[in-house]
Amino acid sequence: MTTLLRDAELAAAFDHGARAYDRLVALNPGYHAHLRRSARRLGLPDGGAGLRVLDLGCGTGASTAALVSVLPKARVVGVDASPGMLERARAKRWPPGVSFVHATAEDLTTARDVPEEAAGPYDAVFAAYLVRNVTDPDAVLRAVRPLLVPGGRLAVHDYCLGGRRRDRAVWNAVCAGVVLPLGTLTGDRDLYRHLRRSVTEFDTARAFAGRLRRAGFDRVRVLPLPGWQTGVTHTFLARRPPYEPGGTR
C-alpha cells in the first residue's frame, strides 16, 4: 500500500507535478467553477474592497484566480510550500493586488523571516485542497485562526467524503478510471496515488466540521458542490469569533 506523502516529500512531489498540474485539473468538469463558487460563499462585500485575503496552499494559482474573479478589489496573498507550484503561479498574469510567498501555514505564525506582505491579519482565508495533505491538520487550523481578524472568515474547499457508501465508490471509481491513469502518463503516479488515499483516509465532511469547531471556529457550515462531486467535494465555512475567552475584540 502506498505511503501517504508528507511535508518535504509531498512538496517535492508537487514540484515535479507542477508542469502538468494545470492541464490535468482542466479535465475535471467544474473544477474552476467550483473554486469560484466556494470563493463567493465567503460572502465578502463590495468585491473585497479594502480587504486582505490569504490563499493558503495556492498551488499553481487556480484558487487565486477564483478569488480574483470573485473579489477583484481585494488584496490577495497566495502562499504555498512547493516552490515548483509557486513558480507556475507567478508566471501567470495577475492584477497589482496579488502577490505570492513561499511558506507553510505554520510559518506565517511562527517564522520571523516571513515577508511583511504575508503577515496577518487577514479578513478572510481560503484554503483549497490543503488541510487533508498536512501532517497535523489541527495544528494548521489552530495556526490559521490567529491569522484572521476577529470575525474573519475561513473557507475550506476540499475533497471530503460525505459519509455514504456511494460517495466513496464514486471517488474510487474516478481515481481508478481517470486520475491514476493520467498521473501515470505524466510521471506523477505516486502523487496521485497519494491524492486517492489522502481523501479516503481523511475526515468525512461531518467529522471535518467538528475539527473546525474544536480549533476554535464558530458558525461552521458544510455546503455541497454540484455535479459528480456531490458528496465528494465540499465548501466548509467558518468564522473566527469576534470575542474569544480571555481575549479582546
Summed up:
The chain has 249 residues and is α/β, with parallel strands linked by helices. It contains nine helices and seven strands, in the order ααβαβαβαβαβαααββ.
Explain how this protein is built:
InterPro entries: SAM-dependent_MTases_sf. Keywords: Methyltransferase, Transferase. GO terms for molecular function: methyltransferase activity. With 249 residues, this protein is an alpha/beta fold. 42% of the residues lie in helices and 20% in strands. A hairpin with an 8-residue loop joins strand 6 (218-224) and strand 7. Helix 1 packs parallel to helix 4 (83-90), helix 2 (31-41) crosses helix 3 and helix 7 packs antiparallel against helix 8. The longest helix is centred in the last third of the chain and has 21 residues, at 165-185. It is globular. 41% of the residues are buried. The mean pLDDT is 92.
